[in-house]
Amino acid sequence: MLKKLIILLCLAAATGAAWVALKPTKTSTAPLTVFCAAGMKKPVEEIAAAYQKETGTEVRLQYGGTGTLLSQLKITQQGDLFIAADDGALADAKKLEVTREEFPLVIQKPVLAVAKGNPKHIDSLASLKTPDIKLALANPEAASIGRVVKKLLGPEWDALAAKAAVMKPTVTEIAADLSLGAVDAAIVWDSVIPQFKGLEIVPLPELAKHDEHATAAVLTYSQHPADALRFARYLTAPEKGGAIFQKQGFKAVPGDKWAARPDLIIYSGGVNRLAIEKLLQQFATHEGITMTTVFNGCGILCASMKTMGDSSNPKFPDVYYACDVCFVPPVAKEFPEAIILTEAEIVIAVPKGNPQNIHTLADLARPGLRVGICNAEQSTIGFLTRSMLKSMNLWDGVSKNASSQVPTADFLVNQMRTGSLDAAVVYGININSDKAHFDAIPLPADKSKAVQPFAVRHDSSYQQMSHRLLAFLRVNRASFENAGFVWKGDTSPVKSADIVLPDWLKQ
Fold first, then answer.
1. Which of 222, 282, 337 is nearest to 468 (CA)?
2. pLDDT single digits (tens) 265-292
3. Labelling 76: which of 302, 440, 475, 490 has CA 20 to 30 A away?
4. CA-wise closest residue to 274 among 108, 431, 49, 92
């Protein structure tokens, strides 16, 4: 086993690869406090009990109307998770900056509920206004269902509220009143109907087209965010919490596959390492996961993925963060969409003072120069360099001087430090932190920019986690700019199949 490990490490050194296994800190055994919308009580209780039995972590649940819970959170500033019944309440929580990561749980619809068989023949909003109908509504100041329905019905709400026999702070209370026969009708979430005996839905066109998401969000003041995130993943996992939601009549939103400690696999071009290595460690610790990261030339990374055959291979990456968009089309099937995060300039690196008086790419063809370029088959910068030189009819002359062709540009910088090269084509980022020893010679502006796309595999078992990683990187823009990248991360996604390379890159 030791011999095999030594061989793997030697191969890694030879190709410029880096396998980085990031492990979280030891998990806490402290109980979790979850503030949960009342309408979600029954499934969340069952899920929490199953989670405690499986992991040993106690989950303490507090219930109420979503609005009431949010007011409580503003005051106490305690707890680990907030389960909101609607999108509006979650948006309010975000404005108050009390929540962080979000996990959609279920989709709910507001509906009109009546007793089984509809004995009062209620069939419209108008029929709810008749004198003999007792209507129950949820208080819009306390419960999401009340706020949502008030907004949907507009002026009709005021008439119904004035007519209502009861108005209570939670959706479960008015559903219970209906189930006991204390009222004739109630407007509730469709997911509440299966939780009470003897209820059925009367379709109302005013409500029929509206959906809301019930969502679990980690609270910003959680003392145990990794544990809170782990329970949130359990809530949404299709084979765990998702199955319980489905069983109890909820329309569950599928989350990531359950694993107590998932391993997120990332393939990244070498140039990105300068900005993301520490961020990945922070993300792994915060999420309570392991993370396997392979840094290498993008040609090698793509070849490795092709060798695996398809994404059914358990080692196939969940995330691919390339050095340039030109290395996305080869794996577009697995990564159909990408976000451009950054841009990096390609330069000629020379020793401080430029002793060989190099000013252009053409100068690299001068006889006797020792030039370093990256391998075009293995790396993005090598591919871009070769294409650039060919488009300028300089490839033959410069390649004759190429005493070194390596997978990643950091190898070239190390060779320059030892004095074995007179010049090298690298990313400006590679020498950005060592300006005392290197000068950067700019290249043609239309050909010297590499743009770095971040892509999540379409069938990854950890898609939601991968997108949380993307969000985390976007929040930490300064890390990229401090490394020398130009930030592009606020742009919209691009379809990998729609990426069109300029003619000079199609050679």
1. 282
2. 999 999 999 999 999 999 999 999 999 9
3. 475
4. 431
